[in-house]
Amino acid sequence: MKRPLYFSTVILFLLLVSCKKYLTSDSASRFSEEYVFGSEPDATKTVNMVYAMFNQDAFTSRVSTLFAGNTDVEVGNSVSASPDGARRDLWSFEATTSNNDLLTVWNNAYSAINKANECEHGLTTISLVKDPTNATYLNLLGEVKVLRAYWYMLLMHHWGDVPFSIKPSRAGDNFYLPKTGRDSILTFLINDLIGIESKMQWADQLDNGIERINREFAMGLIARLSLIRGGYWLYPDMIMKRKDDYQEYYKIANTYSKKLVSMKPRMLTDFATVFMNENKYIKPLNSDILYEVAYAPGFGDVGWCVGVGVTNGISYHSFGATTIQMSLTPTYYYSFDTTDLRLAATCSIIAYNDTLAQVSTGPTSITINKWNRMLVPTPLGPSSSKGTSINWPLMRYADVLLMLAESENELYGPTGDAKDALRKVRQRAFPPALWGDKVETYITAVGGSKQLFFNAIVNERAWELGGEMVRKFDLVRWNLYGKQIAETRKVLNQMGQDAIAGVGIYSHLADYLYAKRNSDKTLSFLNRFQKVSGVVPAEYNIKINWMRNLWNTTTDGPANYTLWQWRGYSDNTGNTPVRYVLPLHSSVISNSLGTLKNEYGY
Length: 602
Prior knowledge:
This protein is 43% helix and 9% strand. It is mostly helical. Among the domains are: 36-269, Serine Threonine Protein Phosphatase 5, Tetratricopeptide repeat (Alpha Horseshoe); 295-390, no CATH class; 483-564, no CATH class. The strands form 9 sheets. A 3-stranded antiparallel β-sheet has the order 16-15-17, with no helix packed on it. It has a two-stranded antiparallel ribbon with strand order 1-2. It has a two-stranded antiparallel sheet with strand order 3-9. Strand 11 (350-352) and strand 12 form a beta hairpin. It is globular. The two termini are 47 Å apart.
């Protein structure tokens, strides 16, 4: 009996605009599975419906970006003194069961997973039965397995233990599945990807290149999932623990990061160019980015909710407007070595006003410089906002190198392999003339012990991956989330106090920032990294309250930014676990007919 697949007009439209940006499709209709999975072109179009779930707001401006705050690196903007029922409550760790963003992401994730399950069934029972060695079908099978694993990873990141199924939904099924433990889900997903990875194709063998799930990304995801499985996570009793077999998963992460580096090595190109390419819609093969979510024209919110700020004066310019919702902490900005090339490429202290003149941000509004809507090949239009079509990177080769270094150090200490992986990342970060001091001397110093090298990895992942929204769950698996929040608050307060007092460990930083306006509407800053000690030159006549903004002189206490940003986590010792796990939406609870319940004190 032929079972029909139903494709709505909306899903067919999304098929057109997902993954490869010039896909075609048949008209909306009803197709049998035998037809849909009976040829390479039709099977490919069907798999595209799984990719299409990346084009929803639930991913573009929710779980991929905004759900990733708040950390010691990325923070959400405009957190106020009390909950407001919106995404800001996620940033302050005070989300409630009525927050509709939770339901939107939950539903979208399970829709993507079910579509992946449907495709896996069709590929394994029809496509690969007819042609079991077909490279296209095998890669398509790998794609849906990887996509399913990625969506389950997002669910577990935010909700912990979740309902788990690898079968497509059918009428008469039991839809009231209980939660499955994260350890069991992760173990299955890791083994599932290990089983298919070697049958997949490299990005340079695919027409869509890094816009299609490929073998190198599958290897990287195996490593990432393994580090999650080997790491800590929060249990309902509000204790952070990791499983006794954690080292076995560090071994898998080590094996697969090394496997990628051995089988498909590549040089790390100029750091800023990696992201300039995304802004310019350039997708180089065998470079840093292993896979990036492809957004068609009119889709994707990179350069709208994350990136450099651009206000919209319709009569002045055609670049449209941003609504920047994620920024970077002042502590992160000042953690960089000032000669680190990643600093300027990652952190922006300017925005653009209605006349496209540069204006200074405040110290608590440092934006992510990796993406800028003004750099796209054709201006997006004066009334544009969302839908920039700038792709979103899910993994880079540098990330894999750092996972190699981390797993190697955990298992064997700071070996030559661990140091070499870190070396490759740091060499790209500094001019060659500085490699002696900033790379070799540095690695020798941090390579003195396992703990020192681990601390270096914690820092390096921040400097390398800032703004790419992986920090939150790095901190979780390291069991450092609370400690990093507490330390960030402490340093922010000290920075502010020292700026006001003029003495102290951070008193050398700029209390005021001075800038001048150039004829081309750009700003030049006099003192980004230090306080002015003498007379300010007359041309630097723009004065910005800088580190002084971090302390409230009226109350002689912390500024609201520091008081409110991580408001729901009040432990200034950092010893209490952060309640990063989100509540299930109330409708999910009620619709489960008693199968699911909220835990973690919700």
